[in-house]
Amino acid sequence: MRVWIVVALCLAGHAMAAPTEEELIVEEEPMVEEELVVEEAVPEEETTVGINPVQIETGEFDEAIQIEEDFPAENPCLNHHCKKGKVCEIDEENNSPMCVCQDPSSCPAAAGEFEHVCGTDNKTYDSSCHFFATKCALEGTKKGHKLHLDYLGACKFLETCVDAELSEFPLRMRDWLKNVLVTLFERDEDNNLLTEKQKVRVQKIYENVKRLQSGEHSLDLLAHDFEKNYNMYIFPVHWQFGELDQHPADGFLTHTELAPLRAPLIPMEHCTTRFFDECDADSDKYIALEEWAACFGIKEEDIDKDMVL
Ligand SMILES: [Ca+2]
Ligand SMILES: [Ca+2]
Protein backbone atom coordinates (compact mmCIF):
# COMPACT_ATOMS: atom_id res chain seq x y z
CA MET A 1 0.00 0.00 0.00
CA ARG A 2 2.77 2.41 0.82
CA VAL A 3 4.31 2.03 -2.58
CA TRP A 4 1.75 4.46 -3.93
CA ILE A 5 3.80 7.35 -2.73
CA VAL A 6 6.84 6.18 -4.64
CA VAL A 7 4.80 5.52 -7.75
CA ALA A 8 3.02 8.82 -7.48
CA LEU A 9 6.37 10.54 -7.33
CA CYS A 10 7.45 8.46 -10.27
CA LEU A 11 4.46 9.71 -12.20
CA ALA A 12 5.32 13.18 -11.10
CA GLY A 13 8.70 12.67 -12.66
CA HIS A 14 7.05 11.68 -15.91
CA ALA A 15 4.74 14.60 -15.74
CA MET A 16 7.70 16.89 -15.41
CA ALA A 17 8.87 16.02 -18.87
CA ALA A 18 8.59 19.11 -21.00
CA PRO A 19 5.00 19.58 -22.12
CA THR A 20 4.65 19.22 -25.84
CA GLU A 21 2.92 21.65 -28.15
CA GLU A 22 -0.14 19.42 -28.22
CA GLU A 23 -0.53 19.93 -24.52
CA LEU A 24 -1.36 23.57 -24.95
CA ILE A 25 -5.05 23.26 -25.32
CA VAL A 26 -6.91 26.24 -26.52
CA GLU A 27 -10.34 26.61 -27.92
CA GLU A 28 -12.87 29.31 -28.27
CA GLU A 29 -15.68 27.40 -26.68
CA PRO A 30 -15.95 27.41 -22.89
CA MET A 31 -14.55 24.28 -21.39
CA VAL A 32 -16.89 21.57 -20.30
CA GLU A 33 -17.04 21.73 -16.56
CA GLU A 34 -15.62 18.36 -15.76
CA GLU A 35 -13.31 17.95 -18.71
CA LEU A 36 -10.12 16.23 -17.76
CA VAL A 37 -6.82 16.43 -19.49
CA VAL A 38 -4.04 14.14 -18.53
CA GLU A 39 -0.60 14.33 -19.88
CA GLU A 40 0.81 11.13 -21.22
CA ALA A 41 3.55 9.63 -19.12
CA VAL A 42 7.02 9.69 -20.63
CA PRO A 43 8.76 6.46 -19.71
CA GLU A 44 12.38 7.44 -20.12
CA GLU A 45 12.17 10.34 -17.69
CA GLU A 46 14.01 9.78 -14.43
CA THR A 47 12.01 9.64 -11.28
CA THR A 48 12.19 12.87 -9.37
CA VAL A 49 11.63 12.26 -5.74
CA GLY A 50 9.69 14.77 -3.81
CA ILE A 51 7.98 16.66 -6.58
CA ASN A 52 4.29 16.91 -6.20
CA PRO A 53 2.45 15.81 -9.32
CA VAL A 54 -0.08 18.50 -8.70
CA GLN A 55 2.42 21.29 -8.56
CA ILE A 56 3.80 20.24 -11.85
CA GLU A 57 0.70 19.20 -13.66
CA THR A 58 -1.89 21.79 -12.91
CA GLY A 59 -0.81 23.82 -15.91
CA GLU A 60 -1.73 20.92 -18.11
CA PHE A 61 -5.27 21.09 -16.90
CA ASP A 62 -5.52 24.71 -17.60
CA GLU A 63 -7.91 24.63 -20.47
CA ALA A 64 -9.43 27.88 -19.38
CA ILE A 65 -6.44 29.90 -20.45
CA GLN A 66 -7.00 31.08 -23.97
CA ILE A 67 -3.98 32.00 -25.98
CA GLU A 68 -5.39 33.32 -29.19
CA GLU A 69 -2.46 34.20 -31.34
CA ASP A 70 -3.50 36.77 -33.77
CA PHE A 71 -1.05 37.12 -36.57
CA PRO A 72 -1.90 36.33 -40.14
CA ALA A 73 -1.04 32.91 -41.42
CA GLU A 74 -1.74 31.31 -44.72
CA ASN A 75 -3.40 28.39 -43.05
CA PRO A 76 -6.03 29.66 -40.61
CA CYS A 77 -5.52 26.51 -38.56
CA LEU A 78 -1.82 27.12 -38.13
CA ASN A 79 -2.16 29.05 -34.91
CA HIS A 80 -5.57 27.89 -33.90
CA HIS A 81 -5.47 25.40 -31.09
CA CYS A 82 -8.30 23.16 -30.12
CA LYS A 83 -8.86 21.49 -26.79
CA LYS A 84 -8.33 17.79 -26.30
CA GLY A 85 -10.62 15.67 -28.40
CA LYS A 86 -10.91 18.27 -31.15
CA VAL A 87 -8.90 19.21 -34.19
CA CYS A 88 -8.91 22.32 -36.33
CA GLU A 89 -10.59 22.33 -39.70
CA ILE A 90 -11.07 25.20 -42.11
CA ASP A 91 -14.58 26.42 -42.67
CA GLU A 92 -14.59 26.63 -46.48
CA GLU A 93 -17.26 29.31 -46.60
CA ASN A 94 -15.33 32.05 -44.87
CA ASN A 95 -11.88 30.49 -44.64
CA SER A 96 -11.99 30.52 -40.84
CA PRO A 97 -10.71 27.89 -38.46
CA MET A 98 -13.09 25.77 -36.44
CA CYS A 99 -12.65 23.00 -33.94
CA VAL A 100 -14.33 19.71 -34.74
CA CYS A 101 -14.31 16.36 -32.99
CA GLN A 102 -11.24 14.32 -33.73
CA ASP A 103 -11.68 10.89 -35.25
CA PRO A 104 -10.23 8.50 -32.64
CA SER A 105 -8.57 6.55 -35.44
CA SER A 106 -6.46 9.64 -36.20
CA CYS A 107 -4.91 9.58 -32.71
CA PRO A 108 -1.27 8.49 -32.60
CA ALA A 109 -0.98 4.82 -31.70
CA ALA A 110 -0.24 4.34 -28.01
CA ALA A 111 3.45 3.72 -27.42
CA GLY A 112 2.63 1.27 -24.69
CA GLU A 113 0.23 0.27 -21.99
CA PHE A 114 1.38 3.15 -19.85
CA GLU A 115 -0.57 5.45 -22.14
CA HIS A 116 -3.85 3.68 -21.57
CA VAL A 117 -6.51 5.42 -19.55
CA CYS A 118 -9.65 4.17 -17.90
CA GLY A 119 -12.93 6.02 -18.38
CA THR A 120 -15.76 6.23 -15.90
CA ASP A 121 -17.59 3.90 -18.30
CA ASN A 122 -15.05 1.31 -17.13
CA LYS A 123 -13.64 1.04 -20.64
CA THR A 124 -9.93 1.15 -21.40
CA TYR A 125 -8.88 3.66 -24.03
CA ASP A 126 -5.57 3.37 -25.87
CA SER A 127 -4.57 6.88 -24.85
CA SER A 128 -6.08 10.06 -23.51
CA CYS A 129 -6.36 11.22 -27.16
CA HIS A 130 -8.61 8.26 -27.94
CA PHE A 131 -10.59 8.95 -24.79
CA PHE A 132 -11.21 12.64 -25.49
CA ALA A 133 -11.99 12.02 -29.15
CA THR A 134 -14.62 9.50 -28.06
CA LYS A 135 -15.99 11.86 -25.44
CA CYS A 136 -16.19 14.66 -28.00
CA ALA A 137 -18.30 12.51 -30.30
CA LEU A 138 -20.75 12.09 -27.42
CA GLU A 139 -20.93 15.82 -26.69
CA GLY A 140 -24.43 16.99 -25.93
CA THR A 141 -25.60 13.53 -24.90
CA LYS A 142 -26.26 12.32 -21.39
CA LYS A 143 -23.68 9.60 -21.88
CA GLY A 144 -21.09 12.15 -22.94
CA HIS A 145 -21.85 14.38 -19.99
CA LYS A 146 -21.34 11.51 -17.59
CA LEU A 147 -18.18 10.22 -19.21
CA HIS A 148 -14.94 11.30 -17.56
CA LEU A 149 -11.40 10.10 -17.48
CA ASP A 150 -11.28 8.14 -14.25
CA TYR A 151 -7.65 7.17 -13.89
CA LEU A 152 -4.38 6.59 -15.69
CA GLY A 153 -3.68 3.08 -16.92
CA ALA A 154 -5.92 0.31 -18.19
CA CYS A 155 -9.11 -0.35 -16.28
CA LYS A 156 -8.57 -2.90 -13.61
CA PHE A 157 -10.40 -4.43 -10.76
CA LEU A 158 -10.22 -2.09 -7.80
CA GLU A 159 -10.85 -3.64 -4.46
CA THR A 160 -13.54 -2.18 -2.30
CA CYS A 161 -12.09 0.29 0.16
CA VAL A 162 -13.02 -0.81 3.64
CA ASP A 163 -13.31 1.58 6.58
CA ALA A 164 -10.01 0.59 8.18
CA GLU A 165 -8.13 1.25 4.94
CA LEU A 166 -9.94 4.51 4.41
CA SER A 167 -8.68 5.79 7.75
CA GLU A 168 -5.08 5.09 6.69
CA PHE A 169 -5.32 7.27 3.62
CA PRO A 170 -5.05 10.71 5.24
CA LEU A 171 -2.22 9.51 7.52
CA ARG A 172 0.01 8.73 4.58
CA MET A 173 -1.19 11.58 2.43
CA ARG A 174 -0.47 14.23 5.07
CA ASP A 175 3.01 12.86 5.69
CA TRP A 176 3.64 12.81 1.96
CA LEU A 177 2.46 16.39 1.49
CA LYS A 178 4.77 17.55 4.25
CA ASN A 179 7.72 15.72 2.70
CA VAL A 180 6.95 17.07 -0.76
CA LEU A 181 6.96 20.61 0.58
CA VAL A 182 10.22 20.13 2.46
CA THR A 183 11.80 18.66 -0.68
CA LEU A 184 10.58 21.59 -2.75
CA PHE A 185 12.06 23.93 -0.16
CA GLU A 186 15.42 22.14 -0.25
CA ARG A 187 15.58 22.12 -4.02
CA ASP A 188 14.24 25.56 -4.70
CA GLU A 189 17.50 26.81 -6.18
CA ASP A 190 15.81 28.82 -8.88
CA ASN A 191 13.44 30.40 -6.40
CA ASN A 192 10.37 29.60 -8.37
CA LEU A 193 8.87 26.55 -6.73
CA LEU A 194 7.48 28.34 -3.71
CA THR A 195 6.46 31.91 -3.06
CA GLU A 196 8.21 33.92 -0.36
CA LYS A 197 5.26 33.51 1.97
CA GLN A 198 5.20 29.78 1.39
CA LYS A 199 8.95 29.53 1.99
CA VAL A 200 8.62 31.19 5.37
CA ARG A 201 6.01 28.65 6.38
CA VAL A 202 7.92 25.65 5.06
CA GLN A 203 11.14 26.85 6.66
CA LYS A 204 9.51 26.52 10.05
CA ILE A 205 8.67 22.91 9.29
CA TYR A 206 12.10 22.27 7.78
CA GLU A 207 13.95 23.60 10.78
CA ASN A 208 11.80 21.88 13.35
CA VAL A 209 13.99 19.27 14.97
CA LYS A 210 10.96 17.21 15.86
CA ARG A 211 10.10 16.73 12.22
CA LEU A 212 9.53 13.13 11.22
CA GLN A 213 12.04 12.49 8.45
CA SER A 214 10.74 11.09 5.20
CA GLY A 215 10.82 7.35 4.87
CA GLU A 216 8.77 4.29 5.60
CA HIS A 217 6.81 4.75 8.77
CA SER A 218 4.25 2.57 10.44
CA LEU A 219 0.71 3.85 10.59
CA ASP A 220 1.01 3.98 14.36
CA LEU A 221 3.98 6.28 14.13
CA LEU A 222 2.27 8.49 11.56
CA ALA A 223 -0.78 8.76 13.78
CA HIS A 224 1.38 9.50 16.80
CA ASP A 225 3.31 12.17 14.92
CA PHE A 226 0.14 13.84 13.71
CA GLU A 227 -1.01 14.08 17.29
CA LYS A 228 2.31 15.35 18.67
CA ASN A 229 3.34 17.60 15.80
CA TYR A 230 -0.06 18.56 14.46
CA ASN A 231 1.03 22.12 13.66
CA MET A 232 3.46 20.92 11.02
CA TYR A 233 0.63 19.42 9.00
CA ILE A 234 -1.64 22.43 8.83
CA PHE A 235 0.18 24.26 6.08
CA PRO A 236 0.87 21.26 3.80
CA VAL A 237 -2.85 20.44 3.73
CA HIS A 238 -3.70 24.05 2.87
CA TRP A 239 -0.94 24.24 0.30
CA GLN A 240 -2.19 21.21 -1.60
CA PHE A 241 -5.67 22.66 -1.74
CA GLY A 242 -4.28 25.89 -3.18
CA GLU A 243 -2.31 23.99 -5.80
CA LEU A 244 -5.46 22.30 -6.99
CA ASP A 245 -7.90 25.18 -6.64
CA GLN A 246 -6.88 27.19 -9.67
CA HIS A 247 -9.65 27.05 -12.27
CA PRO A 248 -11.03 29.15 -10.78
CA ALA A 249 -9.39 29.78 -7.41
CA ASP A 250 -12.67 30.06 -5.56
CA GLY A 251 -12.25 27.92 -2.47
CA PHE A 252 -13.91 24.91 -4.08
CA LEU A 253 -12.45 21.95 -5.92
CA THR A 254 -14.32 20.57 -8.90
CA HIS A 255 -13.86 17.10 -10.29
CA THR A 256 -11.54 18.62 -12.91
CA GLU A 257 -9.43 20.49 -10.41
CA LEU A 258 -8.98 17.38 -8.31
CA ALA A 259 -8.05 15.27 -11.33
CA PRO A 260 -4.27 15.86 -11.34
CA LEU A 261 -4.09 14.39 -7.86
CA ARG A 262 -6.76 11.77 -8.26
CA ALA A 263 -6.15 10.21 -11.69
CA PRO A 264 -2.60 8.93 -11.08
CA LEU A 265 -3.43 7.85 -7.55
CA ILE A 266 -6.49 5.66 -8.10
CA PRO A 267 -4.74 2.67 -9.73
CA MET A 268 -2.31 2.49 -6.80
CA GLU A 269 -4.54 3.46 -3.96
CA HIS A 270 -7.97 1.91 -4.11
CA CYS A 271 -9.37 4.17 -1.41
CA THR A 272 -8.79 7.33 -3.45
CA THR A 273 -12.24 7.54 -4.97
CA ARG A 274 -14.03 6.82 -1.73
CA PHE A 275 -11.83 9.21 0.22
CA PHE A 276 -12.53 12.19 -2.05
CA ASP A 277 -16.19 11.27 -2.45
CA GLU A 278 -16.61 11.33 1.30
CA CYS A 279 -14.53 14.46 1.58
CA ASP A 280 -17.44 16.20 -0.13
CA ALA A 281 -19.43 16.00 3.08
CA ASP A 282 -22.48 17.89 1.80
CA SER A 283 -22.46 16.01 -1.52
CA ASP A 284 -22.69 19.13 -3.66
CA LYS A 285 -19.94 17.80 -5.99
CA TYR A 286 -17.48 20.43 -4.79
CA ILE A 287 -14.89 20.03 -2.10
CA ALA A 288 -14.77 23.23 -0.11
CA LEU A 289 -11.62 24.20 1.81
CA GLU A 290 -13.48 23.45 5.04
CA GLU A 291 -14.40 19.98 3.80
CA TRP A 292 -10.87 19.35 2.55
CA ALA A 293 -9.25 20.40 5.80
CA ALA A 294 -11.69 18.33 7.83
CA CYS A 295 -11.05 15.14 5.91
CA PHE A 296 -7.33 15.57 6.56
CA GLY A 297 -7.96 16.03 10.27
CA ILE A 298 -7.32 19.77 10.42
CA LYS A 299 -9.36 21.44 13.13
CA GLU A 300 -11.95 24.00 12.14
CA GLU A 301 -10.22 26.79 14.06
CA ASP A 302 -7.00 26.18 12.11
CA ILE A 303 -8.55 26.59 8.66
CA ASP A 304 -7.12 29.73 7.18
CA LYS A 305 -8.04 30.95 3.70
CA ASP A 306 -4.97 33.20 3.64
CA MET A 307 -2.77 30.14 3.89
CA VAL A 308 -4.08 28.86 0.58
CA LEU A 309 -3.03 31.88 -1.44
CA1 LIG B 1 -11.97 26.01 -7.78
CA1 LIG C 1 -19.06 19.98 -0.82
TrEMBL record:
Which cysteines are disulphide-bonded? Answer: 77-88, 82-99, 101-136, 107-129, 118-155, 161-271, 279-295
Q: Which domain of life is it from?
A: Eukaryota
Q: What is its main location?
A: secreted
Q: Which UniProt keywords apply?
A: Basement membrane, Calcium, Copper, Disulfide bond, Extracellular matrix, Glycoprotein, Metal-binding, Secreted, Signal
The answer to whether the entry has keyword Nucleotide-binding is no
Q: Name one GO molecular function term.
A: calcium ion binding
The UniProt entry's sequence similarity note says: Belongs to the SPARC family.
Report the protein name in the record: SPARC
**Gene source species:** Gadus morhua (Atlantic cod)
The uppermost taxa in this organism's lineage are: Eukaryota, Metazoa, Chordata, Craniata, Vertebrata
